[in-house]
UniProtKB/TrEMBL annotation:
Its main location: membrane. The active site is at 168 (proton acceptor). GO terms for cellular component: caveola. This is Ectonucleoside triphosphate diphosphohydrolase 1. It is a multi-pass membrane protein. Catalyzes the hydrolysis of both di- and triphosphate nucleotides (NDPs and NTPs) and hydrolyze NTPs to nucleotide monophosphates (NMPs) in two distinct successive phosphate-releasing steps, with NDPs as intermediates and participates in the regulation of extracellular levels of nucleotides. By hydrolyzing proinflammatory ATP and platelet-activating ADP to AMP, it blocks platelet aggregation and supports blood flow. It comes from Seriola lalandi dorsalis. The keyword Magnesium applies. It catalyses: UTP + H2O = UDP + phosphate + H(+); a ribonucleoside 5'-diphosphate + H2O = a ribonucleoside 5'-phosphate + phosphate + H(+); ATP + H2O = ADP + phosphate + H(+); a ribonucleoside 5'-triphosphate + 2 H2O = a ribonucleoside 5'-phosphate + 2 phosphate + 2 H(+). PROSITE patterns: GDA1_CD39_NTPASE (PS01238). Its EC number is 3.6.1.5. The chain crosses the membrane at residues 12-32, 457-477. ATP binds at residues 197-201.
């Protein structure tokens, strides 16, 4: 007689089918309930109204994870054509109009259904700070014009304002450390060096700085459960365009008709206007009396003489604190790695000097040879570089070297701690991202609770446990199993 397979009894078949359905249902429900939601993104837009130009940045982050670090990314940037908004003091409506093309781009880049909820900020820096000092009603009128233009956009406009130098420095530091994922992990932070056209910022955490010696340089943060005592300082007028004005003012004190400038290439020859040069609060009090309307700006191309004249715009002697950078400003001991961005990067990248393992002596030699290269030859070698930028790289390289070594006290040993950077993981280094993260409360003071397991681990564990439970259940039914005997039955 054919032996009957004990598993083929109706009871076991039913139990097995129900068991399998239960496991599938259990795992499906558990997984569906806890799966990461389909990626929806939120957006934020920041306009960086700098002294030399305005740039628009669009940031994007997964909608359900606002609080997680490293999740906000720059998806697009747009450079506004023309000069910075502070240059439109005499034709303010054009400041608003100048933003139109980039705002149009933003409308196309941010999905239509997100427009209304997308915050839009405009922050102005040193150009508007200077205009505000010089003529505060002119700066109000410029703000009014850009606000009017931005209110017409479909985005949620949150206002236009001038950032303080402290904010500009601190938000640059937040950006760099957020993008490097250093804040949430509580890692040693990176200092931030920002060189603009009209001001320059230095920000870093130093163990021997608690703010007591110079409270105006202290910014305290609590981010992801970690406390930071940040040192930050912004030097107004020490951005590279205003520094150049000061260097030219130094050489035109007596109101000459011609200057032979060591910071410009031999053969450089331009006629410049005294009133244009001195039209800035950084130099206006030094305007020579009885000077002609113009002067001839000739290049001499001598790096070491250029160093001397650049040094003359710094005061290295006066200091009422335990230690100073320059101009009597307190600065604690430099500490840790530094990221140097904006004009630091543009200039050092152009000069092929972004590699800071190049010894400072070699940097000086390279600048000596670069500055002494005839202007015609420089123009021939770089036909695609804007002539205004090109003419100034010898000065700018010399200025950067002086600011870093004599100003901030970087030495041959600490210079390699600087990294000249433009972007970090696809997002530009600058104050804008930190500014937006702060205003949207996207960096919590305390560390967010995170699920103990990653999603894949969770799914595997639920599946394994469900199968184990089922096997246990089947085993527990053992007494009910049909007896299976191999002995031939005796009739
Ligand atoms: N490819 C480039 C682009 C810009 N620049 C110079 O870099 C400086 C501007 O730097 P930026 O960081 O854009 O300054 P702003 O933000 O406009 O100024 P600030 O931050 O002081 O308001 C200007 O001197 C500009 O001539 C340069 O040398 N090469
Ligand atoms: Ca800037």
């Amino acid at each position: 007689m054919k032996e009957k397979n004990p598993w083929h009894t109706p009871v076991t078949i039913i139990i097995t089918v129900i068991g399998v359905i239960a496991i599938v249902a259990l795992v499906t429900v558990a997984v569906l309930q806890n799966r990461p939601l389909a990626q929806k993104y939120k957006y934020g837009i920041v306009l960086d109204a700098g002294s030399s130009h305005t740039a628009l940045y669009i940031y994007e982050w997964p909608a359900e994870k606002d609080n997680n670090t490293g999740r906000v990314e720059q998806t697009h940037s747009c450079k506004v054509k023309g000069p910075g908004i502070s240059s439109y003091a005499s034709a303010p409506s054009r400041a608003g109009e100048s933003l139109r093309d980039c705002m149009q781009e933003a409308k196309l880049r941010v999905p239509g259904k997100r427009h209304l909820e997308t915050p839009l900020y405009l922050g102005a820096t040193a150009g508007m700070r200077l205009l505000n000092i010089e003529n505060s009603s002119a700066s109000d009128v410029v703000f009014h014009a850009v606000e009017e233009a931005l209110q017409k956009s479909p985005f949620s406009f949150q206002g236009a304002r001038i950032l303080s130098g402290q904010e500009e420095g601190a938000f640059g530091w937040v950006t760099v450390n957020y993008l490097d994922d250093r804040l949430k992990q509580g890692l040693e932070t990176t200092g931030a060096l920002d060189l603009g056209g009209a001001s320059t910022q230095i920000s870093f955490v130093s163990d021997n700085f608690d703010g007591s010696e110079s409270p105006e340089n202290a910014v305290a943060f609590r981010l992801y459960g970690n406390d930071y005592n940040l040192y930050t300082h912004s030097f107004l007028c020490y951005g590279k365009d205003q520094a150049l004005r000061m260097v030219l003012a130094q050489q035109t004190q007596s109101g000459p008709g011609t200057i032979l400038d060591p910071c410009f290439h031999p053969g450089y020859n331009e006629t410049k206007n005294y009133s244009v040069l001195y039209d800035s609060p950084c130099v206006s009090d030094r305007k020579p009396q009885g000077a002609p309307a113009t002067f001839t700006h000739l290049g001499k191309g001598n790096f070491s003489q250029c160093l001397d004249v650049v040094k003359s715009i710094f005061n290295f002697t006066y200091c009422r604190y335990s230690q100073c950078s320059f101009n009597g400003v307190f600065q604690p001991l430099l500490q840790g790695p530094f990221g140097a961005f904006s004009a630091y990067y543009f200039v050092m990248n152009f000069l092929n000097l972004t590699d800071t393992s190049i010894p400072l002596d070699t940097v000086r030699k390279k600048l000596t040879s670069y500055c002494s290269t005839p202007w015609d030859q420089i123009k021939q070698q770089h036909p695609d570089v804007k002539v205004k930028y090109l003419a100034e790289y010898c000065f700018s390289g010399t200025y950067i070297l002086t600011l870093l070594t004599e100003g901030y006290n970087f030495t041959s040993e600490s210079y390699p701690n600087i990294k000249f950077i433009k972007k970090i993981k696809g997002s530009d280094a600058g104050w804008t991202l930190g500014y937006m993260l702060n205003l949207t409360n996207m960096i919590p003071a305390e560390a967010p609770d995170s699920p103990p397991l990653p999603h894949a681990g969770y799914v595997s564990i639920v599946t394994v446990i469900a199968i184990l439970l089922f096997v246990l259940f089947i085993l527990s039914l053992r007494p009910l199993w049909p007896r299976c005997s191999k002995q031939p039955q005796i009739i």
